[in-house]
Structure prediction request, 384 residues.
Amino acid sequence: MDRSSGDLGAVSGPARVAGPDEGIGADELALATRNHGLPLEALRYDVTPPGLHYVLVHYDIPDTDAEDWRLTVGGRVLRPLDLDLDALRDLPAVTRRVTLECAGNGRARLTPRPVSQPWLDGAVSTAEWTGVPLAALLDAAGAAEDAVEAVFTGADHGVERGVEQDYRRSLPLATAADPGRDVLVAYAMNGAPLPPQHGSPLRLVVPGWYGMAHVKWLREITLTATPYTGFQQTSAYRLRQEPGEPGDPVTLIAPRALMSPPGFPDFMTRARVVRPGPVPLTGRAWSGHGPVVCVEVSEDGGAAWTDAEVVPDPAHPWAWAAWHTTWTATPGLRHLTVRATDATGRVQPLAAPWNRGGFANNLVQRVEVLCAPEPEGQGRPATP
Prediction:
């Protein structure tokens, strides 16, 4: 490809699916080093420490200055707003514990593989977000009668699939302005100012929706009289089987359960090793469609299932629920599998739901575990 023409398409190609024998490329590795998932052993934390929280940055982390930052609310409103951070902090604030999951979580496990950020299972975390309810801001601005959507603009700027853009997403006004949805304009994470990679100084938090809706480095909210048709809304984040079809939008998080890795790992393969006998199995489960009501575990890859105990926390309806059970391990190689069912009847599938973008792949997690007896005569090193 000739990159000397000045055409943006020369540096930003169309979406594609990897060939049958194509491995992870240098561009995907570069994305994987910029972004990171949650180490699954960190599922032990009810609230993920910010440094372990998964990160996806579409373009660059912008150079933002909290002292000069302003948020505008305009478009189809009766009373436009222009607020600095001090004005936002003076408004009544709430804190919500919310589980965020990237829409591409699990993409790298698809065959054929959509070429993009190569997530495995760890693009999910939970934090406590503090800020102003979006419904209160929209009420203060007053939506015009013809307003149908709220468009959110971040400060990150780049090019994607040949389109130069600020990162923008929209929500239906019925969602954005609903106090019961708990959408936040957040300025704090886990009780501290937002870190740069998580949207400092201001971001959107949309409980129950995949991460693409949680616009970071938020600077503008614009109400519109027609649905927003920008790149991130109508080109990206659509469930498509074929390139030319419009596809369905990616919205609410599909149910998923993850297991904290039992035992100890092999360095390269991450296969787990446990000893014979009772082994505690624990993890988290969540869904944007409703609370998780059932978590099941299998030791034979899904041929037979046993129920785990789900421990919901009614105080935090937008956060993952803990689950636990005890597995009696016997010598040999096992394939532990875990799946979740939510209150709407949605169940994690045993086969991956493929689409060209690799979105909403909530395939069950499978963990390879070797149960090996304790080596004879092996003890702990003597203490000097």
